[in-house]
Amino acid sequence: MPRDRVTIQHVAKRAKVSLGTASRVLNGNKSVSPEIRTRVERAIMDLDYRPNAVAQSMRRGNSRAVGLMLREFTLPVLASFVRAVQNVLRGAEYSLILAGSEDQRQRELELLAALSSRRIDGLILTTSSEADEDLLRSREALQVPVVLLDRSVPASVDALLIDHRAGIRQAVSYLLNLDHRRIALLTGSENVRPAAERVLGYRDAFEEAGMKPAPDLIRTESFTAEFGYKETLTLLGRQAPPTALIAGGIAMLPGVLRAVRQKGLRVPEDVSIIGTCDSDLAELGTPPISVLRWDYAVLGRAAAELLLDRLQGDRHRPPHRIEVEAELVIRGSCAPPPDVSRRRRGGQERTTRKLRSGVSA
């Protein structure tokens, strides 16, 4: 008999037990004797029976499944997040349902509806917008515990947050101390927390230095490599291009570097670069790229533990907000801007000539 046509009635008949007894074995009821349990389990194996997960979840009132909705899973850092979440949930006997939204609003709405039909017990997610009412209502309609990844709206749910504001402030201050003044920030739309916080940190650094940034050097639209490439080409083609670029998105660095190479420029001699989140490209490139980094595996474990705390503990406790520091790692991709470097080299050459003149005298 085809596997999809095998029912619990067939299992009960094969094991020579009642339908209720077979059901109790499937649901882990401890009242069944070991001998009867063995007969039912052997019948399940012989018939290759697969219970209907939706029907089981309706009977139990839970599915033992958790949804995880991210923009994409191809980036190694996000893959490490997924692995960490899965490992924690597996230990608690929950399965993980992955959904990739591609940062598209309509795709997110479709995925939320699909997850609702699967009767998931909880959800970990990021979202393309924190201001979209339809997305908010769709998440609330699930009526399950939610953990937000680097999003802060609504404030009524648990969230894991990265301190992008302090990280970008530190990065911009570092570049200002190298005498950069035209520093470009490329990041996503300000209707999500990471981009909005990065813009605030950028402005904080200039204000602390007693300076005003050029507003046209803040570019907020997308976190993608394509956006980084397009905007870097545009900015570097100006009469007064930026002397430093901050790629404010974990997928953006390849696009920025490709545009710099296409312009025939050198890093850091012609333009300095700071990336967001570490990667093989940043660490092993020539030169290695300075980055703001945090550990996504740590975030994944924390997200899963927050959700399990809701599922297995007090669902009515106040929301927990955990903030993770963004660490600035200095590598070889930053140097003083070209005009400052030339002036410094010129000064050193003049000093050397004077010293040589003094010696010859």
> Biggest sheet: strands, sense, closure?
6 strands, parallel
- Give average pLDDT, whole number: 88
**CATH topology descriptor of the largest domain:** Rossmann fold
The tally of structural domains comes to 3
Q: Unreliable runs, pLDDT <50, ≥5 residues?
A: none
Helix content: 40-55%
Number of helices: 14
CATH class of the largest domain: Alpha Beta
Terminal Cα span: 105 Å
Q: What does it look like?
A:
The protein has three domains: 3-51, lambda repressor-like DNA-binding domains (434 Repressor (Amino-terminal Domain)); 65-162 and 298-324, Response regulator (Rossmann fold, 3-Layer(aba) Sandwich); 164-293 and 326-337, Response regulator (Rossmann fold, 3-Layer(aba) Sandwich), CATH 3.40.50. It has a six-stranded parallel sheet, with helices on both faces. A six-stranded mixed sheet has the order 7-6-8-9-10-12, sandwiched between helices. The mean pLDDT is 88. By secondary structure, the protein is α/β, with parallel strands linked by helices. It is elongated, with a radius of gyration of 28 Å. Strand 9, helix 12 (280-284) and strand 10 form a beta-alpha-beta unit. The protein has helices at residues 8-15, 19-26, 34-47, 53-60, 76-91, 105-117, 133-141, 164-177, 193-208, 225-236, 253-262, 280-284, 296-312, 338-360; strands at residues 65-70, 95-100, 122-125, 146-149, 158-162, 183-188, 218-221, 244-248, 272-276, 290-293, 321-324, 327-329. The chain has 14 helices and twelve strands.
